[in-house]
Amino acid sequence: MPDIAPIGSRIGKYMDIPESAKGPAVDPAKGYRIQDLGKGLYMVTDNIYQAMFMVHEQGVILVDAPPSLAAHIPKAIAEVTRKPVTHLVYSHAHIDHIGAAQALAGKATIVAHEETLRLLQQAADPKRPLPNITFKDRYTLKVGGQRLELSYHGNAHEPGNIFIHAPEQRTLMVVDVVFPGWMPWRRLALAQDVPGYFAQVKLIESLDFDVLVSGHVARTGTKADVTLQREFIEDLKAAAGQALGSTALGVGLNPADGSNPWAVFDNYIDRVALQCVNTLTPKWGKRLAAFDVYIWDQCYTMEQSLRLD
Ligand SMILES: [Zn+2]
Question: Which InterPro entries match (predicted)?
Answer without folding.
Answer: Metallo-B-lactamas, NDM-1-like, RibonucZ/Hydroxyglut_hydro
